Amino acid sequence: MAGRRAVLSARASLLMAAAGVVFLVVLLGIAQRTTSALWFLAFPLLLLGVLIAAAAAVLRMLRHF
Amino acid sequence: MEQQIERSKIVVRWIVAVLLFAAVSYLRRRGEVDVPWSSVVALTALLALLNLIYGAILRRGAPAWLKYATTATDLALISALVVLTGGTRSVFYFAYFIVLISNSFRYGMGMALYVAILYNLAYASVLAAAPPGGDLTVEAVKIFAFWGIALYAGYLATRFQRQTRILQSYEETILRLRHEVAQLKRPAS
Fold this sequence. Notes:
The complex is a heterodimer.
Chain A: H1 10-33, H2 43-61
Chain B: H1 2-29, H2 37-59, H3 66-84, H4 95-107, H5 109-129, H6 137-185
Helix pairs in contact in B: 1-2, 2-3, 3-4, 3-5, 4-5, 4-6, 5-6
C-alpha cells in the first residue's frame, strides 16, 4: 500500500525465516539424538522461535506487512 | 470474573485431589505403584493447604498473579506425583492435560502458552529426576504433542472468546433497540 511504512522488511522476514529453519533443525536434532533430558529445557525457546518465524513468514507471504 | 474462575478452579482442584488420592491408594494396594504412604499424604496435604490459602486470598479479591501461581503449583504437584509413581511410565501423566484444558479454555492463548512452557520445564525436570535411560525420542514426541494440544486449545479458546464478545454485543444491541421501540410505542403526551 502506498505511503504505508513496512513493519517487517523483506530482508528481516527472510532472516527470521532462516532463523526459524535453524531452530527447527536444532529442535529435531535434540529430539532424535539427545540422551540428556536437560536439553529439553531449551524446547520452549526453540519452539516459540519456530512459531514466531513461521507466523512472520506466512504473514509476509499473505502481504500482511 | 477472574475471582469467579479461580473459585471454580478451587472446587475442581478438590475433586481432582480426591480422585487422584483414591486412584493412588487403589493402585498402591494392588502393587501397581510403589510409593510410600508418607509421600502420598504429604502431597495431598500440600495440595489441601495451597487450596485453603488460595481460598483465603480469593475472599479479598483476585490479584493478577494468582492465576499464574495456581497453575504453576498445580503443575509442580503433578510433576511430583509423576516422579513418585514411575516417572515416564506413570499413569498420572494425563493429569497435566487437566491443567492445560482447564486453564487455556478459561483464559485463552496466553495461558495455553504459559502452561505449555511450564509443562515443558517441569517434564524435563521429571525426566532428569527419574531418567528412563537410553533414547529420549519418545519423551520428546510427548512434549511436542503437548505443545500441539496447547496451541490448538489456545486457538479454540480465542475463537470462543471472540464469539462470546460478538454475542454480547448482539445482546446489547437487541436491548437498546427494544428500549427504542418501547419509547416509540409510548403515546405522545
